[in-house]
Amino acid sequence: MSVLLFSNATVLPMTGSEPHTFCGSVGVVGNRIALVSADPAAETAFRLAHPDARVFDCRGRLLMPGLVDTHCHAAMTLQRSYADDIPLMAWLHDRIWPFEARQTADDVVLGMTLGIAEMLLGGVTSFVDMYYFENRCVETVDRLGIRAMLGCNYFDTNVGEVMPQIEEAARLAAGRDRIRIAVAPHAAYTVSADNLTRGKALADKLGLHLMTHIAETQDETAILRERYGTTPVRYLDSLGLLDKRTIGAHCVWVDDEEIAILAERGVTVSHNPQSNMKISSGVAPVQKMLRAGALVTVATDGPCSNNDLDMFEELRTAAFLQKSATADPLALPAYEALRMATVNGARAMGREGELGIVQEGALADLIVVDLQKPHLQPLHDVVSNLVYCGKASDVETVVVDGRVLVEGRRLLGVDLPQLFRDVDAAVRRIING
User: Fold this and answer.
1) What are 33-50's pLDDT values in tens digits?
2) Ordered structural domains, the chain, with CATH
C-alpha cells in the first residue's frame, strides 16, 4: 500500500462555502486521504506511523483537489483544429460526422489516450466523456489511471449497435471504482422519443447516469419547437429523462421556467463557455441557474470545438463571461467558479464527499500547483490567482486514487513522442480515405 506525504504545502481544501487556505500537511494512505493538518505534531506522528512514506516538499506550492471536467469528447483530439470557423450544423454534417464515419475503434482509443494525457498534465483527475466505442476505452482509462465516467453516445442511426456496447462497458467497468459508465443519447433533435426512453430505461436498469446535449443552439430549439411544439428541457422532462443522474451539456437557450425544472429535478448542468463562444452558440445563464439552486459545473467540451481540454482556461472564461453577459462584476466569483470544477463536479459524478475536496477520508485525487511563477505573484488572493491567472502548465504533480501519475510536469508511463507519431499516422489515414 503506497503512502504519500505532502509537506509544507499551501492547502486549499474546498470544504467550505467560503475560500480558506492553510499551510500544513496532507497524508495519503492507499487511495484515501489520511491526514489534513496545520499542526506540525500531526505530521510528525504521521511520519512515525509511516516511516516509508514518500515525501513531497511543497514549499511554494498549492495542494488542492483535482479538477473535474463534466463534459468532453476526449477522443476528438484527432480532430483538433480540423474544422474551425464553421457554424455548428455545417461543422457537424460536413466535417465532423464524415470524419467519424471513417475512424475505427482503435482510432478512438488512440484519441482518448491523447486526450487523457492532456487532461492529466493539466490537473484534470476526473472527466465525463461522451463518444463512440467507450467499451473499448475502459481498458485505456484503467491503464492510464485517471478517473472517468464514460458515456456511450448514440443516435437513431446506431442505437442498435450501441446498446450492447453499453452493457459490455458496464461489465468491463464492474469492480473498477475509478470507472463508471453512462448512457448518452446525443440530443433530443437527433434521437427519437422511443430511443431516448429506451436509453433511460437501460440507465435505470443498470444504475447508470444519463447524459445528453440540451438546448445548445437556437437551431436546436427551433427544431424541437417545429417538431414537437415545445423546447428541449420541457420535452426531455415530459419523457422522464431529467433527474439527479442526468447530466445536461450546455443548456444555453433556457428560460426561467426551464431553469426551475432543471433545479427541481436535480439535473447537472455542464457549462462549456469556450466551446459555446467559439461556435457562437450563445451564453448560458449560469448566474440565474445558480441562484435558482441548479447544480452547475464547468467543462471543456471536445478538443475540436474548444480546441483544448484545459480546465484552467475554462474556469477563467466561465467567470469572465458571466460578468460580461450580466454587466455585473460580482457575477460568478472566483471561488464559486472553482467549486463548479471541483465540489460540484464531484456531485455530478455521484461522488459527493469523496471527490473535489481535501478532507480526511476522501479519495486521494490531488494536484500540486507551482505558485512560483511570474503570473502567479504576488499572492494577494490564492484563489483569485488560481482562477484568473492560473494555467494548466502550472500543475506540477497529479495524484489519482493515491497513485502519482504526473511528477515534475512529466506524465508517467506514457511515451508521448511515440503517441504523437501514432496520432499523426491515424489522422493522415482517416483524412486521405
Assistant:
1) 999 999 999 999 999 999
2) 3-65+364-411 (2.30.40.10), 67-348 (3.20.20.140)
